[in-house]
Amino acid sequence: MNLFSFQILHLTTGLKLFFWGISLMILGVSGCTIYSESSLPDLHPHTGKAILLLQGVQPSGIRYELWNDLGLEVEKEASSHPWLGDIRGIELQRTTWRKNQQLRLDQEQFKTSLALAGITEKTLAAKLSVGHGVDQVLLYQFITYPCTEECTSPETWLMRMQLIDLNSGLQIHRVRLNYKPDDDELEGAPREETA
Question: Distances in Å between the alpha carbon of 146 and those of 181, 190, 191?
Answer without folding.
Answer: 11, 10, 8
